């Protein structure tokens, strides 16, 4: 598995995680013999990946990268009715599956059915990196090469923050 694949998978995962009725998950992966969790897409806004525009003079300006195939990809929300769509199926199954590999299998199936094709390449970064098999602290980000291979991936539920201010 390469970073492009994991960016596509994380995009779909974040779309589902953003729904109020979903159970939120994070991707866990092996890299160079270590086990981590992290984000391959920093943030999504609507149907675009959002990054800070580091080249802009205004420090708060964002850059958004959409999907080339948005007209095809938006079919994920269509069905005989919205409640029967593949998107709602993902939301419901995020809570239903007791064995998380089943949810990962469904995410991969939906990613194959509705390919995520970004308008331009996303930066090859992993964000919010947390080493799970050691004492190292959380790392804000790492840059990886495009051809790096990840040994395995898995999903873990995110701990929900119930403290709303």
Round the Cα radius of gyration to an integer and report it: 16 Å
Tally the helices: 4
Largest sheet: 5 strands, antiparallel
Oligomeric description of these chains: single chain
Q: How would you characterize the overall build of this protein?
A:
The protein has 165 residues and is of the alpha+beta class. 27% of the residues lie in helices and 25% in strands. The protein has 4 helices and 8 strands. The strands form 2 sheets. The chain has a 5-stranded antiparallel beta sheet with strand order 7-6-2-1-8. A 3-stranded antiparallel beta sheet has the order 3-4-5. Strand 3 and strand 4 form a beta hairpin. Helix 3 packs antiparallel against helix 4.
Notable features of this structure?
165 residues; five-stranded antiparallel beta sheet; three-stranded antiparallel beta sheet; 27% helix
Write the layout of secondary structure elements.
Blueprint: H1 3-17, E1 25-31, E2 34-39, E3 44-45, E4 48-52, E5 62-65, H2 70-73, H3 86-96, H4 100-113, E6 125-131, E7 139-143, E8 153-157
Antiparallel strand pairs: 1-2, 1-8, 2-6, 3-4, 4-5, 6-7
Helix pairs in contact: 3-4
Outline:
It contains 4 helices and 8 strands, in the order H-E-E-E-E-E-H-H-H-E-E-E.
């Amino acid at each position: 598995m390469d970073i492009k694949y994991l960016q596509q998978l994380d995009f779909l995962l974040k779309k589902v995680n953003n729904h109020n009725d979903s159970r939120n998950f994070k991707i866990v992966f092996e890299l160079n013999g270590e086990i981590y969790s992290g984000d391959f897409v920093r943030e999504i806004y609507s149907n675009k990946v959002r990054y800070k525009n580091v080249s802009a003079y205004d420090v708060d300006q964002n850059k958004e990268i959409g999907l080339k195939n948005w007209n095809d990809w938006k079919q994920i929300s269509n069905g005989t009715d919205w409640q029967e769509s593949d998107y709602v199926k993902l939301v419901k199954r995020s809570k239903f599956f007791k064995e998380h590999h089943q949810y990962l299998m469904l995410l991969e199936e939906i990613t194959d059915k509705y390919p995520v094709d970004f308008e331009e390449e996303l930066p090859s970064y992993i964000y919010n990196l947390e080493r799970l098999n050691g004492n190292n602290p959380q790392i804000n980000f790492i840059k990886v090469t495009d051809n790096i291979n990840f040994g395995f991936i898995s999903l873990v539920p995110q701990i929900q923050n119930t403290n709303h201010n």
